[in-house]
Amino acid sequence: MQGGERYNSIGNHLKSEFGRKTVKLSIDAGFTCPNRDGTLAYSGCAFCSGGGSGELAAHAAGSEAAIASSITEQIDVLSDKWPDACYLAYFQSFTNTYAPVDVLRERYYAALNDPRVSGIAIATRPDCLGEDVLDLLEEINRDHYMWVELGLQSIHDTTLKAMNTCYTVKDYDEAVAALDARGIRTVTHLILGLPGETPDMMLESVRHVCGRPVFGIKLHLMNVIKTSPLYEAMPDYVPFDSIDEYVDLVIRCLEIIPPDVTIHRLTGDVPRKLLVSPEWSYRKRTILNAINRELALRDTRQGAAI
After folding, report:
1. Which domain holds residue 199?
2. Which of 224, 220, 159, 172 is nearest to 192 (CA)?
3. Structure pTM?
4. How far apart, in Å, are the Cα atoms of 164 and each of 36, 43, 159?
5. Is 129 helix (H, G, I), strand (E, B) or coil?
6. What are the tens digits of pLDDT across the range 40-66?
7. 176 exposed, middle or buried (CB, 10 Å; 0-12, 13-18, 19+)?
């Protein structure tokens, strides 16, 4: 953490790494998911959107040329705001290690070969990291800044089963260990507010992840969205009654996360037109300001309760 910062934000970490503002270019590279193509299931995880939680990603249709074009289009827009920024290619939508290795290689390097791209982030499931995929990731990691994001969401297998993830916490533990053995940074996604989970259960998930060799954590506010199976099954579900309730839980989570773990997210991004609940979730800046204000009022910070 730098100066007066109360948590170790990934933004500050990347500024230290590259010496300037670093921006992620969100890419939908045309992958699917074993939980959608019939290998494991067809409907996907209950909380997942029709766009594979990548509504904010730029669709690149899967070809090298399309990925390269997507990167250029995003940089053209972003360079007005950040003319001297670094860029990371973020393979975000669906499962970005779920394809033959030659396809993965082609699409990753379509981004990495752009001289304006300083690194890569790859989002995937913990059960989609075969040895050949790990070999490719290790190769890339030797020459490029990289992290792999694992969608865990909860350590409670009853929750994972109810959410139809079709993976277990054991899959996650094995994936983290395999990535760590190859020197690859791991970022873990956790969802706060999944149906049936108490605050204590969510804190247990945070503690479990922090007991593994992770580089970063994403705490994602559970958003019920119109295109998800969860909305069809539980249209009236509201994860948190108020911003204050959510802020309190986030601070309790931060307090048990070691200070060296980077914090990549403290809420969530969902297009307002798709959002059902919490109805205030789209107010991202308001939520983040409330978290920072409450951290200061409590005079607490990341790792304070360890």
Report:
1. 10-298
2. 220
3. 0.94
4. 11, 8, 9
5. coil
6. 999 999 998 765 454 444 455 567 889
7. buried
